[in-house]
Design brief:
By secondary structure, the protein is α+β, with helices and mostly antiparallel strands. Helices cover about 45% and strands about 15% of the residues. The chain contains twelve helices and 18 strands. The protein is elongated. Keywords: Coiled coil.
């Protein structure tokens, strides 16, 4: 049973097929060889050079022809024997795979090619349509086209000439492959391309109602039984034909008139004055534009020259400044070396003065272990101080006054160390002997619970819980200050509760060193205190003379003035209570001046003040 589709009937009649109905042309089974009417394996078998050695090997071997009927294996006399593998007699049977691959590639290259075609109305006419080039194939599906917009002589024609050009893959020139004169009325309708074995160089024509070919017979089905449909009458068709003829005549008349007008224009002389005037105006515009461009270019050139001149001046000034800077750098290098040396000497002196000051502080505030006491129990100025713990057992040995005095010494020593070590305390200390305070200005404290940020370094009277807490917090702040001073000297504190051990450790490290400790300059402190006492005595004499204000010491209304007034009034009251009058007071004042007088002349004396290791000579 054939697998072809059920034949159908074409819509166009044979006499109605025109070029305007043609939409595409395809080519199948490209072949460059001429057409042969016989097969290659029948006639040339016995004369083939590669087959003769095979024929001589066995007399029973005979060639098979495609026109003969081969016997079945069951009728052979040796049918019971197992079938043996037939010997391969191909020309590529005894070659290596590389040669076989090259041979196959050569066969493929010989069978493929590049193809395009052209359509003509006559053999000598120009092409109506030229297709695109399809490369490296044996069957070509060219693009569809439309000839409906062409002239009526082309679109209404039913005959054409098709010419096919081909080129092998490695060739440079095109060769003429095929030329066919086709009458569309003689084409055979095939309907489909499925299950079709096309001959070499077969042409397939695609019309608007189906596929046509010259190599296969028509497969047209019988017309279906359908009711008749009324079509246009003869008179209507004649009217359409007359209308089309009239349109064509009008187009021809239009073309003729256009040619006549063009000829008249060519024969008449051309007035070029208007064109010349326009050219002159355009040239004037070009000249004006060019002049404007020239002016802009000149201005830009002048600006660039001015910019270059200013840059040259700036470069010259910069070079002068650079030379001056190099000179200054050369001079400053010497100054820098001297300054570095002076800085090193100053730092060495500062370190030496700090060592001396810390050594003096160690002597002024001796911190020694308590005899017959637990480890890490120390006393300052022979006043024992526990390690941040004051409970009932400690209170039996150390009273509250002794504890407050010890904390006052520690606060005084810590407050002075911040100046000598140049490191401010995070929690400032206000020293008032045994009634000192520690102030916390950086912690976030609740205003409801803590009304003041000053915490006492002494136990309050009455033993209140809030007072006890404020005292313990003040002691904690003092220990934090000591820890901060130790950290400034790169010392690690194991336990901040050990106030005196940490302070002694700090003084020991700050006073340690292999260099000699610089000596104190003599006369400095004595002259300082003599000047202070002499100033106080002058204030007392002014008070006894009846002066109501201290002119030499402080201004009226200040705190120092009030303190001086109170001190002077107290001294006057004490003298009067002892029975001395005003003259006695003056005599007593003079006696004090004699006591406080220096053992050498004031005019030739020179006092020295020292602050944090720096010396300043003041002539009095």
């Amino acid at each position: 049973m054939s697998s072809l589709a059920e034949p159908r009937r074409p819509r166009l009649l044979a006499q109605n097929r025109k070029l305007r109905h043609l939409h595409g042309i395809w080519l199948r089974n490209l072949s460059f060889a001429p057409t042969s009417l016989r097969t290659a394996d029948d006639a040339d078998l016995n004369t083939s050079f590669s087959k003769l050695p095979v024929l001589k090997e066995s007399s029973q071997l005979h060639p098979s022809r495609s026109s003969d009927s081969l016997r079945k294996d069951i009728v052979r006399p040796d049918a019971l024997r197992p079938p043996q593998k037939r010997r391969t007699s191909l020309s590529l049977a005894h070659v290596n795979p590389v040669a076989r691959q090259k041979k196959l590639e050569t066969l493929v290259e010989d069978s493929v090619g590049d193809v395009f075609y052209s359509l003509h109305l006559d053999r000598d006419a120009e092409p109506v349509y030229v297709s695109e080039v399809r490369e490296r194939a044996t069957s070509f599906n060219f693009k569809f086209f439309s000839l409906e917009t062409c002239a009526s002589a082309i679109s209404r024609s039913c005959a054409m000439v098709i010419r096919v050009w081909a080129r092998r893959p490695k060739a440079d020139s095109w060769s003429f492959l095929l030329e066919e004169t086709i009458d569309l009325r003689s084409l055979n309708f095939i309907g489909t391309l499925m299950d079709r074995n096309f001959p070499p160089n077969a042409l397939i024509f695609h019309l608007e109602d189906g596929v046509y070919s010259l190599d296969f017979p028509n497969r047209i089905s019988e017309p279906k039984q359908a009711p008749l449909i009324a079509t246009s009458s003869y008179n209507a068709l004649m009217k359409l034909a007359n209308l089309e003829s009239s349109i064509e005549d009008a187009i021809e008349t239009q073309q003729r008139l256009m040619e006549e007008i063009n000829n008249m224009l060519d024969d008449s002389p051309v007035d070029r004055s208007g064109t010349a005037q326009e050219a002159v105006s355009l040239a004037d515009k070009y000249v004006t534009t060019q002049r404007r461009s020239n002016n802009l270019a000149q201005k830009k050139r002048d600006d660039l020259r001015e910019s270059i001149r200013s840059r040259r001046e700036a470069i010259a000034q910069g070079r002068d400044l650079q030379v001056q800077a190099e000179k200054d750098m050369a001079n400053n290098r010497e100054t820098l070396a001297a300054s570095e040396e002076l800085l090193e000497q100053t730092q060495q002196k500062i370190r030496g003065q700090r060592r001396r000051i810390c050594s003096d502080l160690t002597d002024i505030f001796p911190i020694t272990p308590i005899p017959n006491a637990p480890p890490l129990s120390f006393q300052i100025c022979n006043i024992p101080l526990p390690n941040s713990t004051y409970d009932a057992a400690t209170a039996r040995n150390i009273s509250e006054d002794v504890l407050s005095a010890g904390l006052g010494f520690v606060a005084l020593l810590t407050k002075h160390l911040q100046f000598y070590l140049s490191y401010p305390l995070p929690y400032p200390l206000d020293w008032f002997g045994s009634r000192s305070y520690a102030r916390d200005d950086i912690s976030q404290l609740s205003d409801k619970k803590v009304s003041r940020r000053e915490f006492p370094l002494y136990l309050p009277r009455g033993g209140s819980t809030a007072g006890q807490w404020r005292f313990e917090y003040a002691w904690f702040l003092l220990n934090k200050d000591i820890e901060a001073l130790c950290s400034s000297q790169s010392l690690r504190v194991v336990d901040i509760r050990h106030s005196l051990p940490n302070l002694k450790y700090l003084l020991y490290v700050c006073s340690a060193g292999s260099d000699q400790v610089p000596e104190r300059k003599k006369g400095g402190v004595r002259g300082l205190w003599a000047g202070r006492l002499k100033g106080r005595m002058s204030t007392m004499s002014a008070q006894f003379d009846g002066d109501s204000s201290s002119v030499t010491e402080s201004r009226r209304g200040s705190m120092d003035s009030d303190v001086n007034h109170q001190g002077d009034a107290l001294r006057a009251a004490l003298l009067k209570s002892n029975g001395h009058n005003k003259d006695d007071v003056d005599a007593h004042t003079e006696s004090l001046d004699d006591v406080l007088a220096l053992p050498f002349g004031e005019g030739d004396a020179k006092f020295t003040l020292r602050t944090k290791g720096l010396r300043e000579n003041v002539s009095r």
